[in-house]
Amino acid sequence: MKKRKKSLVWPAVTETVNLVSFLFVSLLALATPVSLQTLDSCQAMFLPVGASISLLIMFLFFDSLQVVFAIFTAILATVAFAFLLLPMCQYFVQPCSSGQKISFGVCGRFTAAEIISFCLSFTIVCIWILTGHWLLMDALGMGLCVAFIALVRLPSLKVSTLLLVGLLVYDVFWVFFSSYIFSTNVMVKVATRPADNPVGLFAKKLHLTGLVRDAPKLSLPAKLVFPSSQNSSHFNMLGLGDIVMPGLLLCFVLRYDTYKKSQTSSAETGLPPPPNYVQRLSYFHCSLIGYFLGLLTATVSSEVFKAAQPALLYLVPFTLLPLLTMAYLKGDLRRMWHEPFLVVPTPKHMEV
User: Fold this and answer.
1) Nearest to 287 by CA among 318, 242, 256
2) How far apart are CA 287 and CA 292, in angstroms?
3) Which of 124, 216, 217, 307 is 20 to 30 Å from 45 by CA-CA measure?
């Protein structure tokens, strides 16, 4: 069988390692599904530093720790994909289930839908480990994206700006300048390096030659891959960081749009709609259009230069700058920057 190669056509391959930068936050959020993990300014500033440390560890010690990375990623992908499947399982199980939780001792109590979603997720992860198929890897990557965006929140525009600008500097440094220090592009090196299959390693120790020969190397689900339209033997890649980090910003502005609409409708019932287009355009649509244009620009740049590009170099300005400009024009910048969802009690008028 002809071995498929992976192409660096999409600029987002450089953001593949961003999965490592938020694995810790994901585990915190997934460990407590009833509560949300809200990032503060210190965490936003530390995340690029943690991503750099994780990147260096993977670059320097990948051969020694690749099995640990593969097992750790498989566990996290199982939990995240179970979270993605849970609403569907609840929909199908609800008519024939009372919703009573089943006890599993020290593991806790779970509903039938939660058990089914976990079993399905565990089965998919096992099949991915045995086959290494790119469709299953994409499914697990989607689960990681959905779980992270659903369980992690940005509280303000200040934290959003610190996070995105910090990751922009991180992305540009490791793509453009790491080769001057390490004589190779660290980001691309780690992003395209497959890990040994844990099944193959265990089979080798047990002298099961059939499994050793058939076990494929695993490309960790830190990216979405799909066959190139020009060459079916090559894969285009989109890093999860290029989905999750702007996705957190989109979730923040969507929440603010909903909050502002509820505040306006309750305070100004019966007033005519805003007079100009800027006032009517929502922050969410502005950021979404900016994300599309930024990703399009990054793709064109990678095609022109024929090299991996730091996608956040294009995504951050195209999403953040229009948002800041629109917030300034609407007069919401000060409030969005600090505590946009802080409810200020209205003082009661004193009777004379």
Assistant:
1) 318
2) 9
3) 307
Local confidence band at 289 (pLDDT 50, 70, 90 cut-offs): very high
The top-scoring range by mean pLDDT among 19-23, 218-222, 311-315 is 311-315
φ, ψ for residue 291, nearest 5 deg: -65, -45
Any idea which residue has 């066959």 for tokens? Answer: 227
Phi, psi of 169 (to 5 degrees): -65, -45
d(CA 238, CA 134): 13
One-letter-per-residue 3-state SS of the chain: CCCCEECCCCHHHHHCCHHHHCHHHHHHHHHCCCCCEECCHHHHHHHHHHHHHHHHHHHHHHHHHHHHHHHHHHHHHHHHHHHHHHHHHHHHHHHHCCCCCEECHHHCEECHHHHHHHHHHHHHHHHHHHHCCHHHHHHHHHHHHHHHHHHEECCCHHHHHHHHHHHHHHHHHHHHHHHHHHCCCHHHHHHCCCECCHHHHHHHHCCCHHHHHHCCCECCCCEEEEECCCCCCEEEEEECHHHHHHHHHHHHHHHHHHHHHHHHHHHCCCCCCCCCHHHHCCHHHHHHHHHHHHHHHHHHHHHHHCCCCCCHHHHHHHHHHHHHHHHHHHCCHHHHHCCCCCCCCCCCCCCC
The C-alpha atoms of residue 160 and residue 319 are separated, in whole angstroms, by 11
What's the rounded Cα separation, in Å, for the pair 33 and 153?
13
Provide the annotated active-site residues. 171, 242
Question: Hey, what amino acid is at 163?
Answer: L
Three-class SS of 9-35:
CCHHHHHCCHHHHCHHHHHHHHHCCCC
- Joined tokens for residue 311: 């996608």
* Mean pLDDT score, 303-328: 87
pLDDT digits (tens, 9 = 90+) for 111-146: 888 899 999 999 999 998 888 888 888 898 888 888
Check the CA dihedral 175-177-182-184 and report its sign. positive
